[in-house]
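Homework help thread (please don't just give me the answer)

Our assignment gives two proteins as sequence + structure token strings and asks us to describe the second one. The first is just a warm-up. Here they are:
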Amino acid sequence: MAPDATSRITVVIPTLDRPLELAQCLASLKAQTEVRHEVILIKERGPLAALRNEGLQQACTPVVCFIDDDVVCPPGWLAGVLR
């Protein structure tokens, strides 16, 4: 889930002190049918909009989406976002 030249989509996840939920979220992203993606974790306190903007600035793809750290995405979710 690291960025590379072939990544098509970025998922930005603000997170703080929810390791179990985050582990489930990351596992669901690892199981995606669209494998050309990067994940940016923002581990800070602050206004949610500011944390998401920080992730947006770090993104290296043409498509960026935002989820919370307690979200479990079905396997075809990223492919659906790209469609």
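The one we have to describe:
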Amino acid sequence: TSTATMWCLYALSQAPEIQTKLRDELFTLETETPTMDELNSLPYLDAVVRETLRVHAPVPTTIRVAMKDDVIPVSEPFVDRYGQVQDSIK
């Protein structure tokens, strides 16, 4: 969360026109302690947050490991390079 917040603040500091537009939208709220529903109703805030997470992802890569092998069935059996007949591909 802190990394994403830092990148968002950095990006806003580099684009004053976006910062101004976001500030104007935030000033439409009638309270200084908005609820999540009120924050979720702000489309420009949502766009800024989503774009920040897209461009500066806090977790840039995720290593994925297959938990089981996939088996792809084939329409007709075939003979592999070892001379064995196969009806699927692992």
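TA reply:
I won't write it for you, but here's a hint about the kind of observation we're looking for: The longest helix spans residues 2-14.
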